[in-house]
Amino acid sequence: MRKEDCFYLGKIVRKHSFRGELVAKLDTDEPELYKNLESVFVELNNNLVPFFMEKTLLQKGNQLRIQFEDVSSEEEAEELLGAGLYLPLEFLPKLKGNKFYFHEIIGFDIEDVNFGYIGEIVGVNDSSAQPLFEINSNGKEVFIPMIDDFIKEVNRSKKTITVEAPEGLINLYLDN
């Protein structure tokens, strides 16, 4: 399984018992969706390795206690500490309306209700406090904050997003 075909589910953060149980912190707003998993991919040495689960228990909100099938000692569990957990993209719940996953909108066209067609979304910059649409507009980079009030429509069938950016924002990037 390739990492680009998966999404990051969380990280193994600590051991739970001397029998190899581990606790993973899930990176999700809905941890209950993942409490009955049969398997996950664990990132070991930059490879995704499938691990099957004997049992799981959701605890403390977004923490999942896991007993993997072939991990039965504290030493074996120790080797998995800090490892990322991944699932195939098809396990992501489908979003509706104006909600979307960042990877889903790459390649969408973006237009503004006042400005018109801006360009193609080539990425999402989520390294700042506010995620930004990264847009290629005829070779120029345009950044628009991903604020719910700005996003007017997500049309998955047409692969377009309509926004209403603050007046003058788009021109800041294109007028120089």
Task: Summarize the structure in words.
The protein is mostly beta strands and 176 residues long. The protein folds into two domains: 3-91, Elongation Factor Tu (Ef-tu), domain 3 (Beta Barrel), CATH 2.40.30.60; 102-174, PRC-barrel domain (SH3 type barrels, Roll), CATH 2.30.30. It is built from two helices and twelve strands. Strands 1-2-5-4-3-6 form a six-stranded antiparallel beta barrel. Strands 10-9-8-7-12-11 form a six-stranded mixed sheet. It is elongated.
Uncertain segments of ≥5 residues (pLDDT<50)?
A: none
Order of helices and strands: EEEEEHEEEEEEEH
DSSP strand content: over 45%
How big is the Rg?
20 Å
CATH class of the largest domain: Mainly Beta
Shape: elongated
Mean residue pLDDT: 93
Tally of distinct domains: 2
CATH topology of the largest domain: Elongation Factor Tu (Ef-tu), domain 3
CATH architecture of the largest domain: Beta Barrel
